[in-house]
Amino acid sequence: MCPVSTGIKRFFAEQNGADLKTKEHPELGNQGSLSINYTGATFSSNQQEYAVFLLINKAGFQIDKDFEFSLNWKYDGQFIYQNQRIGYKISDSGALPDQSATILTLPISSEQKQIVETMTQEEKMSLEMSDLKVNQ
Question: How far is CA 9 from each of CA 43, 95, 110, 126, rounded to the nearest angstrom?
Fold first, then answer.
């Protein structure tokens, strides 16, 4: 995960509604689970491209331990990530209260960005989290 400055977080929050309680936006996420949504945004930092996601906690409890999961992300049959392990560190990003969302930035290659830039039909995108493991 890319360290994101407070200014960048604030910009994406203003543009994409991040950092808002999901009670204010009930359409985000799935009740009883942790989920991820692509915001439609990318950005560059130090010659690296990143895709911007919302990590949404509606699990029913605060997440206050490091965890990791596998991510499959594809558009129109083309994988952007396939079984990519993603880590979330509390020391970097803070605890994730129930009914809240936070920004998650993930690096993408130029080839992956080309696929992302073609995304025009939401129904052709698939985004799936699996194999969630909490680090003790």
Answer: 12, 16, 23, 25
Q: What is the pLDDT of residues 53-85, one digit of tens each?
A: 999 999 999 999 999 999 999 999 999 999 999
Residue 72, H or E segment: strand 67-75
Q: What is the pTM of this model?
A: 0.81
User: Which residues sit opposite 85 in a β-bridge?
Assistant: 70
Pairwise CA distance, residues 6 & 38, whole Å? 20
Residue 91 DSSP SS3 = helix
CA atoms of 94 and 75, how far apart (whole Å): 30
Mean pLDDT of the chain: 84
Residue 120 has pLDDT above 80, yes or no: yes
* Tokens representing residue 99 in the block: 């009914």
- CA-wise closest residue to 104 among 45, 46, 58, 35: 35
